[in-house]
Amino acid sequence: MKHQPLPSATGEDSDRVYTPVAWSSMICRLLPLSGRVLDPCRGQGAFFDQFPHHCEKLWCELDEGRDFFQFNESVDWIVSNPPWSKIKDFMDHAMTISNNVIFLITTNHAYTKARVKIVQKHGFRIRGLLHMPTPPKPWPQSGFQLSAIWWQRGYLGQPEVLHAVDNLGATA
Ligand SMILES: C[S@@+](CC[C@H](N)C(=O)[O-])C[C@H]1O[C@@H](n2cnc3c(N)ncnc32)[C@H](O)[C@@H]1O
């Protein structure tokens, strides 16, 4: 996206910016996760390790030979911080195989015309937005609001907007 910090601008490979556990833990605590829960890009396990024990926990991670785009089983939830350069394709595939998708991304990332079309194509709507503080570096710093965005297939209500209750040690 234009006006977003790019990997070259931040000096980081933003496809490999890992989520601090305080962030993933808060998100997983607030969500009613149940059934089959997939982390499509596990990285070092920030989200996967926080999925409740009563769930069937599933994962993909390209670095470990499990490509999300080759995973075609149905699941109940998909929860992660996806690789930022592949968000559109991750949304499209996630909404094909799951009725609930939660991605930790800057909120504006969800609102390109192409991404809104994907959401509509799959019959999803935003069920909730959890506004989160920006984690400290190496997380790219920007003025854009970070959110855990929960899309749900068939949801007809208004989105609920929540704010993370403390700053989780964030610097921004
Ligand atoms: C931004 S990092 C986040 C990792 C982890 N979800 C977290 O929150 O810390 C994105 C991860 O996606 C992985 N990845 C990229 N493309 C993928 C694909 N097609 N299938 C599975 N994992 C992929 C990268 O290797 C990287 O570990």
Q: What's a concise summary of this model?
A:
By secondary structure, the chain is an alpha/beta fold. The protein has 4 helices and 7 strands.
Structure notes:
The protein is α/β, with parallel strands linked by helices and 172 residues long. It has one domain (15-163): Rossmann fold (3-Layer(aba) Sandwich), CATH 3.40.50.150. It has four helices and seven strands. Strands 2-1-3-4-6-5-7 form a seven-stranded mixed sheet, with helices on both faces. The longest helix has 11 residues, at 87-97. The radius of gyration is 15 Å and the shape is globular. The two termini are 21 Å apart. Bound molecules: S-adenosylmethionine.
Keywords:
172 residues, alpha/beta, Rossmann fold, seven-stranded mixed beta sheet, 4 helices, 20% helix, binds S-adenosylmethionine
What's the SSE blueprint?
Layout: H1 7-10, H2 21-30, E1 36-39, E2 56-59, E3 77-80, H3 87-97, E4 100-106, H4 113-121, E5 124-132, E6 146-153, E7 160-163
Parallel strand pairs: 1-2, 1-3, 3-4, 5-7
Antiparallel strand pairs: 4-6, 5-6
Helix pairs in contact: 3-4
Bound molecules: S-adenosylmethionine (SAM).
S-adenosylmethionine is lined by residues 15-19, 40-44, 46-47, 60-63, 67-69, 80-81, 83, 86.
